Every structure is written in structure tokens, then in C-alpha cells.
Structure prediction request, 193 residues.
Amino acid sequence: YPFRQRAVVRPRLFWMRTFHPIYNPEMAVRLLERLRSEFPDIRLVMAGPDETCLGEIRRLVEGRGLQAQISFPGLLDLPMKVRLAGEHDIYLNTSRIDNMPVTVLEMGALGLPVVATRVGGVPEIITDGVNGLLVPDDDDRAMAEAVKRLLNQPALAERLSRGGRALAESCAWEKVQAQWLAVFGDLTNSRPG
Prediction:
């Protein structure tokens, strides 16, 4: 994953998950609607496969007149993911339920500051203000404020960009392999026998 340091970010938002209610794609649409009067050039890419609700989200976008600001490229292969991430500056993770989202690690590796909901295991990997910003579940107002902070505070965006890359590097196989082997070794050694 090629890293690009973000210092000054533009209102170019990236959302990439499966279109399913547990990932709350509607929140990203509400967020964009909330910010568009203040940032008329705001754009949002919503990428991923449809599991249940892409049609509903498309209708929501059309109903709110956001077709010029939101695009849907579908499921992305790695080269397209890297290209689109390179064209955007903030990653949105709007999940209602999550464990350890790989997309957060991928976007951090690419240098996008991450704004994520504080759900499930997400707070275990994102430290608020260090490698991302955390907001309450389904709170598009709080997420909009977090996005504005990034747009208005270049030092924060730069710190989160570097912190996201450091997070991704700490989760690389080369780093965690020894930890897993130690766990398995401890389990093997502690078995009665």
C-alpha cells in the first residue's frame, strides 16, 4: 500500500464497505448532506458490493439531490482501491457493529485520516486523536464535526495520517507472526499431558 502523507485535506471523502445495514451507509449520506452547504465542492465515493441496501441508498441520494456529490463505483479490486484512495483525503467508517475492520487498516496504510464510529473492536485499534477520530454510533452530527476538524486543522490531519500508517504497519504479518507463535506456544506448553 503506497503511503501518501495527508497534511492539508480536501473535502474528498471515501467510504468502502458492503452495502448492508450493519455498516450504516445511510450515515455517510446524511453526513455529506450536513456538510455540503459549508463545503459546496464536497465529494463522497461509496464503494463496495451490494448485500441488501444499495438500491435504498441510491434512492436516498437521489431523493436528497446528492447525485453530483456521491458516486458508486461498485466492488473495487486492489489497484482501483489504491487509485481511489489516492484521490480522496478522509476515510469514513460508519459501522454499527464491527470487530477489526481491515478497511480501516488499509486506509491508514494509504495515509487517509480515518473517522470511525466507536463500536465493537474499533476502539481497540483506533486511539482517538492518534491514528483516527472516533464518534458515537449513528451520530452524523459528531462525524461531520470530526470531518470539519480535519479540514480546518492541518496538523491534526497530518498526525492522523502518520498514525494510521503506523497502525497498519503494527498489524503487518511480519510484526504479528511472532506474537501468534508465542500464543500458540503458550497454549501448547500449558496443556496437561
